[in-house]
TrEMBL record:
Gene3D superfamilies: 23S rRNA-intervening sequence. This is Four helix bundle protein. It comes from Gemmata obscuriglobus. InterPro entries: 23S_rRNA-intervening_sequence, 23S_rRNA_IVS_sf. NCBIfam families: four helix bundle protein. It holds the Pfam family 23S_rRNA_IVP. The lineage of its organism: Bacteria, Pseudomonadati, Planctomycetota, Planctomycetia, Gemmatales. It comes from the Bacteria.
Length: 118
């Protein structure tokens, strides 16, 4: 069961992304380049959530979490592409794609709720 706390959940997701990308970097070019893109987007989600938690204002909180949502959307794209090309039968890629779909829904709800309460 994934952690309830969004900061812990995005941190755990980032750890899994780093591990996957480490594997991708051992392969020749397209895999390495896709891994680099996924690494940036997948680890940025948690970083932005953490920054939002320490936001200086409600607008800053909304902005950082909206950026985290955008990064989650990008990570979902790279995972989908990796699944379609480099690792088509990978359970880990499939699980990560499922998790990022959950993160997108959670972050979307966080942003929508924060906007409603302004």
């Amino acid at each position: 069961m994934p952690p309830f706390d969004i900061c812990e959940r995005t941190f755990d997701f980032a750890v899994r992304i780093v591990n996957l990308c480490s594997t991708l970097c051992e392969h020749p070019d397209p895999s390495r380049r896709l891994g680099d893109q996924l690494l940036r987007a997948g680890t940025s989600i948690g970083g932005n959530v953490e920054e939002g938690r320490a936001g200086q204002s409600r607008a800053d909180f909304i902005s950082k979490n909206a950026i985290a949502l955008k990064e989650a959307r990008e990570a979902a794209y790279w995972l989908r592409l990796i699944s379609a090309t480099v690792l088509p039968n990978s359970d880990e890629v499939r699980d990560l794609h499922e998790e990022v779909q959950h993160l997108k829904r959670i972050l979307g709800a966080i942003v929508a709720r924060a906007v409603e309460n302004t």
